[in-house]
Amino acid sequence: MTSKVDLISVVIPTLNEAGNILEAVTTIEKELTYPKEIIVVDGNSTDGTIEIVKDTSFCKLIIEPRRGYGIALRTGMKNAKGNIIVMVDGDGTYEVRHINRLVERMIEKDADMVLATRMYDPNKAMGLLNFIGNKVITYVYDFFYSQFLSDTQSGFRAISHEAIDNVPLKEGDMAFATEMLVQFAKVGYNMVEIPTTYKARKYGKTKLKPFKSGIEIFSTMFKGFLDADTLRTCQKHWKENRFKR
Length: 245
Ligand SMILES: Nc1nc2c(ncn2[C@@H]2O[C@H](COP(=O)(O)OP(=O)(O)OP(=O)(O)O)[C@@H](O)[C@H]2O)c(=O)[nH]1
Ligand SMILES: [Mg+2]
Fold this sequence. Notes:
Blueprint: E1 8-14, H1 21-31, E2 36-42, H2 49-55, E3 59-63, H3 69-78, E4 84-87, H4 99-108, E5 113-117, H5 128-145, E6 157-160, H6 161-165, H7 176-187, E7 191-195, H8 210-223, H9 230-241
Parallel strand pairs: 1-2, 1-4, 2-3, 5-7
Antiparallel strand pairs: 4-6, 5-6
Helix pairs in contact: 5-8
């Protein structure tokens, strides 16, 4: 449970995001009114992202040469000093000016994780394939893990650092975001959402491989069920947490 803020560590994975990263980090620096550190974990970008981050006086830069979204985030989280971690992409698609809202909701609800959901966005900026894939994954996840999330694939989240340290996380790529939700549901951590808007990518290429990621995400949800009693444990946690949301 997170009821107070000592320091917020914002962890941003980047791979060739030169046209997006500066706006993302300057907005976070300006909008996030709590004590903070901004950690950019770069995968050895070749388009100038590293130089842009170095030129800011307020970002910590970590180079993580191993490929993978999950690996980059885990490396950033290992180096984070804050009691709250906010993870967000460096690609300019998430509405980072809503960052305070995630933290405020976390405190208000005494939550372990707050996700920014893009599913109520009137602009509908998400591509159709991603939208349908996300809907299916989210439906399956909610059903089997007794949750009521609307956007399990949101990469914009505020998370209790203590809670993160308490669960095993091994996924190296995009399935990392789902693995976190699986592990949190199993422990009974309280997860809530706030609505946000979303923008299409303006610069650079997506690193998402929908087919590969889809298989990894479904196998992560399935693996989470190999322990005996997952369904019963998650239902029990749901009953305990239902009025906290
Ligand atoms: N350090 C590092 N960052 C990565 C890697 N792969 C992706 N990223 C970053 O992780 C974030 C998420 O990747 P995206 O390509 O935006 O994936 P997505 O959000 O599913 O796809 P979009 O629809 O294009 O936004 C972005 O900021 C990427 O630059 C990697 O291997 N290493
Ligand atoms: Mg993205």
